[in-house]
Records
---
Amino acid sequence: MSKHFLFALSLSLLFGCSKPANDAGTPPPSTASVAALNCASATLSSTATAGVAFTATGTLPYSGGNAASYGPGVAVASTGVTGLSATLQGGTLVSGSGALTYTITGTPASEGVAQFSVSFGGQSCSFSLTVGADGNFTQYGTPFAGVPDRPDAAIYQVNMRAFSGPGSFSAVTARLDSIKALGINVIYLMPIYPVGVHRGVNSPYAVRDYRAVNPEFGSLADLRTLVDGAHSRGMSVILDWVANHTAWDHPWLAQHTDWYQTDNTGVIIHPPGTNWTDVAQLNFNSAAMRVAMIRSMKYWVYTANIDGFRFDYSDGPPASFWRQAVDSLRAITTHKLILLAEGDRADHYSAGFDYTFGFNFYGRLRNIFSGGAVGSGLDAVNATEYQGATADQQVVRYTSNHDINGSDGTPLELFGGQAGSMAAFVVAAYMKGVPMVYNGQEVGLPYRLTFPFTGQDIDWTLNPLLKEEYKRILSYRAASAALRRGALTNYSNSNIAAFTRVLGAERVFVVANLRNSAQVLNLPAELQNSTWTNAMTGASLSLTTQVPLMAYGYLVLRN
C-alpha cells in the first residue's frame, strides 16, 4: 500500500468588515449579532491535499457576541480551488468574545488557495485555505531506465484471463522469457482491477476500484514480481486504464454523484451512444473527479513501478482532460512513461500522447484482404492517422487485439490463413508505426478468445515454426533503424504492398503479396537492376525489372 505525505496547511485572511447585502450560503440569524469576525485567527483541525477527500473542523473567532442562539447554516462553496464547502454549525453566542464552528468537507480539485466568504451576525469576512500539491507516493523499486523511445517500441498485449489456465500474474511472469524472445520490449496488461458486479457482465473494463488488484489475478506483490521480472529482461510494463466510465458499484457513485453524467431527470447514465449498460458515464466537467482520476493513475506508477498506460476508449473523454492527465503524468520526472491513446482523434497528438491506435490501418488491411485494391490506399491511411503528429509520435499497428479477436476473428480467419496473416503482419509491422502482437497470435491460435475471456485458454504448443517467423520479423525491425525511423516511399500496386524505408545509407525494401494467387510487381526505374540481401535468410538477390511473388509471399530486402 502507499503512504502519503500531506503538505502543510496554511491559512491566510482576506478580511474586510462590512454590512453584507446578503450571504446566500449562511443567512444571518435574526437575533444573533457580533461586533467583528476575526478570520486572521481562524484555525482548522487537519490539512488538505489536492485530490484527497478532506474533512476538517474550523473555528472562526468573533468579538462582541450578544449571547443569542443560532441555527446551522447552509454550505458555502469554495472559490479559487473548488470542490470544498464550509457549513456553520448551530450554537449559542457568548457575551463578548468566542468562536463559531464550521465543518469543511469535499475533495479539493487542485492545489492552490480555496477561499470561503462567510457572513454572520451582521459582519462578513473571507478566510483562505491553502491546498497542498498532490501528496507524494512511496516509490516501490527503482524506476526502469530501459523504456524504449517512441519509434522503437514493440508491444505485446496480455489478456490475463485467457493467457493461461490459472489466469494469473504469476502465469505471465513464468512466460516472460518467451515474450522477450519474440522481440517484445513493452508488455501491455489488460485491466488488472476488481470488476463490477452490480449491473455487470463480468467485463474487465467495468472497474470497481481504481486502486486495487483483482484477486482473480493475484496480489499486488504478484504484480510487482511480474513488473520486476519484465524490467530485469529489458521490457516495460503498461496498464490498461479505463478513464471514461466506472462500474456501477464503484465507491464514487455513493460518495460523489456529481462526478457522473446524468440525464435531464438527474439519473446517472451509461456512456451515450453505446450499449455499455454495465458502466456509468463520468462527468468530465467535475474538476475534483479529474484530479482523483489522475491521482489514481499516479498511484500505480509509484506503487507498482509501472511504465505507463494504454488508455481505453480515449475518444470518449474531452481533449482538455487528456492534456491535464498527460501533463500531470509527465511531471513525474523520475519515470519515462509510455502513454498510448486507444483512439484516433487528431487532438490526441496535441494532448501529448506518444501513440494513437491504428483503427483505420487495420480497417484498410481488412478491406484489401476482402478484395479491395492496395494501391495508394495505404498512403491515404498513413496521411490520415498521422495528421497532427509532431516529432516522433507514432501509430500502433496490429492485425489482432482482444476486441478484433473476439468479434471479427483470428488473424487466420481474417487474413487468409497462416501465410496471409504473416504477409499482413509484415506490412503492419514495417510500413509506418509500431507493431502490437495480441497474446496467442504468435502461435497461430485457430480459435477465438471471446468475451469475457473466461473460456478456452491459449495452447502455447501450437505452430512453433510460425512463432519463429514472428520472431524473425520483430527481431529484424529491432535491428533496423531504417524500419523504425526511415523515410517511407510507397511502390504498391493493386495487389502488392511494396515500399522502401531509408535512413542514411541503410535502405530496406519490403514487398508483400496480399492476394491468394501469384502476383508480379513491376519495379520503378530507381529499383531496377539492383542487388539486395534477403534480411531473413542472408541470401543475395539481384532484381531486374520485376519481382514475382507466390500467393501471400513476401520479401524483406536490405542494401
---
Amino acid sequence: MKRRDRIMANRLLGIETEYGFSQNPGGNPEADMGDIGQELINLAMARYPFLPAGQGHGIFLGNGARFYIDCGAHPEFCTPEVDNPWDIVCYTDAGAELLQGLANELAWAQVGPGLRLFRCNVDYLTGATWACHENYGHRANPLGLPRQIVPHLVSRIIYTGAGGLNPFSPGMEFCLSPRVYHLDRVTSTSSTESRGIFHLKDESLSARGWHRLHVLCGDSLCSQLGTWLKAGTTALVVALVDGGFQPGQSVGLQDPVRAMRRFNRDVTLRSTAELLNGRRLTALDLQWHYLRFVQEHLGHPCLPDWAEAVCTAWQEMLERLARGPAGARTRIDWAIKHALYLEHLRHRQVSPDELTAFNEDMRRLRPSADLSDEPAGGFDSARVPAGAGVPVPPGRTIALSNAQRHKLQQLRTELCELEVRFGQLGPQGLFAALDQAGLLQHRLTDVTSERVRQALREPPASGRARLRGRAIQQLHGRGGHLCDWHAVWPESKETLLDLSDPLQQEMPSWTPRPLPARASAPDDIEQRFDFLKSEYERGNFEQAFSSLGEITTSPAWPTPSFVSQYHSMMALVQCRRGFFPAAIASLNARAQTRLNSISSVYEHVAIHRFQGLIPGDDIWEWIRLGDALLDQHPEPESAQAFGFREHKACALLHRGQLDEAKILLRQVLAENGRRRTHPRMYALAAADLGEVYRRLGEPDLARTCLDDAERLQTDAMALGDLSEFTLLNLAKLESASGDVSCFLNRAEAIQLDANNRMGLVRTHILRARLLRRQVDAGETRDRILALREQLPSLHACPLCAKILHRWDDWCAGRTLPEGGDAFWGM
C-alpha cells in the first residue's frame, strides 16, 4: 500500500436526528405543527446558551450542537462533531433529553395536553419518512468511497436496523429497517426524494481538502449499543479507505438495492446476495469480511485508538446474530422489537398459517414496493405458536374467513401503534419502560446519566466543536453574533472566528474576513429587494423568481423607482433561469429606458453574458456601445463600469481572444477595493482569468485564480456562480477522475438544491466529456434534452445544439476540425 501524507487517526463524526412529534389526545386539531416546533426553539433559546444559525435557520447551542425545525416540521438535533462513538451516544441521548424536557415544559406552560416525541423514521399512515443522517469526516477521494463502503451500508442493517413492518405492504411483513423501502437506488444527490444507499453530497463544511461522507440510509435507534456500533463500525471502514485501503473491493454487490431488501426482510439472516464476482454471501458474511479486514490492520496509523474496542463488540454482536434474533433480543432495536411483536402475536393467538395467508392475500390485493424475488416476508414462523390454527399441508394456504381477515387487519394496526410507542421519548415509551424494568442489555458502561447531562450543557473535549461551544457560551446574551459549523461572526460581517479546520484545538483570533448576512424574512419593499438580491447571488434563481411576484403586493408598489428595480431584477433572474426572451422583455418593459447610460448598457451586457452556455453574438453590439460611453465618460468608480468590463472580458475569452481577455481581467482585478466592495463580481473575474490561464497552458496560475474565486464565492455565498463556473473550471484542470468527480458532484449538489436547471445542463455536459468512461452517455443526453425542452435560452444556443448534434465526438473527447479549445468553449 502506498502511504499517504494525510493519514490521520482522529476521526470526526456526528449524527443528525429528526424526531416525529404529535399532540397528545385532546390537543387542538387546528394547531400548526410548524408553529409548535418554533415554540420548542423559543424555549431552547430561553433555557440554553445559543447563537442564531447564520446560514440556514435554527440555533447553535453551547454544547456545539445545532437545533432547528426541518422539512415537515420535524425537530432536528445535530450532535457536535466528536472523535469517538461513545460521545456520539452521549450527545444523541442528550438531544433526546433536551427535546423531551422542552416538550414537558411547553405542556406545563400552556396547561395543554402536551407533545409526544418519537425516535422513528416512518409514518405508516402517510408513507412519509424522515431522517437520521450520519456524518464522517475524511480526506479520501469521494469517488472511491461507494465501491468500498456500499456493501457495509447494505449489510450493517443486521445490527443497525430499527425494525418494524414494511411500510408499503398492507400485510404484516416484519423487516430489519422500514426505511430501506424508501431507498430506490445505489447513489443519489437528493436526500428527500429518489434516495440512494450512498449519498453523493460532498459539502465538507470545512477547509479545502476535507470531505464529509453524509449517510442517509440509517435509522434512528433507541439502543445505545446499536447507535455505538452504527457509528463506530462505519467510521472504521471510512478510516481504512482514508488510509488508502480497499475494504470493499472484493465484495462488490451485483445489485446493492435488491441485496439490501433481501437482507432486510429475513430475520433469520440466511438470505444471500450475489457479488460482482459471482459468489453469494449473507449479510453476516459481509459483516465478518469487514470486521476481519479491520482486525488485520489494527495498529495502523489510519485507525483510531478505540478501533480494537469496537472490533471486540462488533465480533460479539455477529456471534450473537449467528444464533438468530434471540441472540440479540435485549440489545439492539430490531431484535427487541421483533421479540415484542412475537409476544403480541402469541397474546392474540395468531397462527403462522393465518399470518402467511393474510400476507399473501394482501400482496395479491396490493403488491408492495419490493424488488425482492423471494416470497412474501413475515415473522419467523417457527417462533409463532400454532394457537388456534389448523395444520395445513406444505404448499397450500388456508382460506381466511372475513372475521379472520378483519382480526388480522386490526392486529396490523396494533403493531404499527406498538412501533410508534416503542420509540416514544419519556417514560411512556415502550423501549423506555422495558429499559426501566431492567429487561434490556443495551447500555454502555461509559455512557452514564451524568455524562449525558454533561453533554447537554458542555461541548466535546476536542476539535472545533469545543471551540464553537466555548464561543457560544461567551457570546450568548451579548447580541449581534451568528454561528455556523465552520465559523462564528458578528452581524456586521467585519470579522470572523474561523473554525474551518475541524481538528483545531486552539481558539483562533478574530480575523477581518466578511461573511454574508443572515437571510431574514423581509418586511418592506426595500428589504424585499435586498432579500431577492441575496437569493439571486446564492443561485436560488427559481426562489427569486417566485418571490418577485410578491413585490407587487407591497403598499409601496408601483412607485416608479421600485418598478424600475423590479424589471431590472426580473431580467437578471430570467436570464439565469434560462428564459432569455423573457429577460429581454423585462428590460424593454421599463419606461424611459436610457440606452446612453452605462448602467443600462451593463444590464443588457449582463443578460447577454448568460444568454446560453456562452455569451451570444448580440453581446458585441452592446459592448461597442459601452466602450463608446466609457471613452466619453470613464466613470472609474462606477460599479456598473466594473461589471461591464468583467462581462466584456468573458465575451473576449469565449471568442478566443485570450491575450486581450487576460489584459482586461488583470486590469479589472487590480482596481482598488473591488475585492472588498464587490466580492461576487471580483470572484467571477478571477474565475474567468483562471479559465484564460488554463487555455493558455498555464495550469498553476489557473488554479491560483480559481482557488481564490472559490474562497470568495463560498464566503459570499455566491453559490450560483460557484457551481456554474468556478467548480466546473476547476474540474477541467484535473486529470484524476476522482478529483474531477469531486468538483462536478459539488456543483451538481448545489444546483439540485436550488433547482438551477441551466447549471445542471452545464454540469451534465461537462461530466459526459470529462468522465466519459463512468457515465451513461445516452442517459446523460436524455437528461440534457429534457432540460433543454424547458429552457428557451438553450433552444437558441448554438453551442448547445452543436454539442448535442455531435454528441459522440463530444463524449469521446475529440476536438473540432475547426480548432479552438478542447472543450469547444465550455
